[in-house]
Amino acid sequence: MNFTDIDRDDFRNLLLEIHQTHMPFGMFGKEKYPPRGVPIYDLPEEYLLWFKQRTFPKGRLGELMAHVCEIKECGMDSLFEPLRRASGGRYKL
């Protein structure tokens, strides 16, 4: 799905799904950041770019991480501020 082809409701639903998704494994997973891991919108851009170079995880997690990476690469990280406020602020890494 390209952002140019997405309508407002689909984009709202995508942001809601991103808001509800946490990194389940790795250095930002639930073992190091219990109980659920770091929200994917608060993953460092460098970490997302590392996955982009090597391949995002398979399935919906990888798709959502790719969207977050694209948003951050465009300099639009502020798009996630309402999600952060709703969750009590930026996740402390």
Structure description:
Helices cover 46% and strands 0% of the residues. It is mainly α and 93 residues long. The longest helix has 14 residues, at 60-73. InterPro entries: QSregVF_b. This is DUF3820 family protein. Pfam families: QSregVF_b (PF12843).
Structural class: mainly alpha
So how many helices? 4
Tally of domains: 1
Poorly predicted regions = none
Query: How many strands in all?
Result: 0
Give a quick account of the main beta sheet: strands, pairing sense, barrel closure. Answer: none
The N- and C-terminal alpha carbons lie at a distance of 30 Å
Order of helices and strands: HHHH
- Mean pLDDT across all residues, rounded? 94
Rg over CA atoms, rounded to whole Å, is: 13 Å
Overall shape: it is globular
Range of helix content: 40-55%
Oligomer: single chain
Tags for this model:
mainly alpha, 4 helices, DUF3820 family protein, QSregVF_b, 93 residues
In short:
By secondary structure, the chain is mostly helical. Helices cover 46% and strands 0% of the residues.
Secondary structure elements and their pairing?
Elements: H1 8-20, H2 45-54, H3 60-73, H4 81-86
Helix pairs in contact: 2-3
Protein name: DUF3820 family protein
Pfam families: QSregVF_b
